[in-house]
Amino acid sequence: MKITEVKTFLVHAGERNWIFVKVYTDEGIEGIGEAYNTLKDRATEQAVHHLARWLIGQDPLRIEHLWQSMYRFSRFPLGTIEMGALSGLEHALWDIVGKAFGTPVYNLLGGRCRDKNRVYVHAGGQTPEELAQSAVSIVKMGYTALKFGPHPRNYPLISENALIKEAVARVKAVREAVGDAVDICLDIHGIFFNPIAAAKIIRALEEYKPLFVEEPLLYENVDAWAKLAAHVNTSLATGERLFTRYGFRELLEKQAVDIIQPDPCACGGILETKKIAAMAEAYYVYVAPHNPMGPVATAVCAHIDASTPNFLIQEYIPDDRPPRSEVVVKPLEVEGGYLKLPTKPGLGLELNEEALGKYPYQPTFRGTAYHEDGSVALT
Q1: Which of 49, 290, 303, 371 is catalytic?
Q2: What number does CATH give the domain 107-347?
Q3: Does CATH place domain 3-104 in 3.30.450.150?
């Protein structure tokens, strides 16, 4: 079997575009994947086709060999755009291999460690009351965990003490609304530059027992993370902006986090995420994959989660409404706060190419934030 062609589909999904990848073979077996959206979507699309030159004419079963070809022959380190492209192509290769052998991908990754994957969804609301109402509605739908940002939207314009006070009000409102049986995950989005400043807000929130606090700091300085970890008693999580096992090595060696969050659409794909997870297991660190992308990405995560012993919980965006419910033939299902595992060969779902045209590509831009003095705020 040989790879004959690679196609890409850019699909507008509101705040972002999804970048779907499709790989074709001379035996009629086709595989799909999803590249990470960096808001540089056209560049990522071109990177897919650039990397595909090392795939055309090759055997799709040689996933490790083809990964090394794309990664090593590029010579210079691959950044966000190229790693997203590589990841999407790698997903499609696994989809082909699973279909070729007539089995779900997780059976090729060591088999199932669990029968279903626990998920969390996002709560929203500008005021503590609105946030609490959103959390209650999520719990009523059967979910047992949720995530939100503890900081208010105007965080760059208020003092540190005011920010902590507002964060406490938001988290307290949610905890009182949902009770202790529901897990609360907090995503700070790396808005703090200083580890002690981050520690102050985390300590203020500890009494509400968050499952984890995600990205209180940015990812560049591992020593700052280790310093923060020494000052708090809450699990810290990060990893969505890191690539390959090499990007996670120092973070694990210095025991700076309790939960890593590699994104399989960005960090190098399915096998690379499994390698990262295995490294984390040796350090007694959980894995909770990052997944703000489309339904193909959700399927990719499902196979990784099912076959990973140190998996904790999966970020999930419900697929029950358009365009998510339309762009694939049949999305994966959730029941009682758990994602059901796909049972079909490969990734277990297919693109609905007729529906893709209903959502043509549109440029998207991330919002900006500035402090009161005009300086750039971390986002």
Answers
A1: 290
A2: 3.20.20.120
A3: no
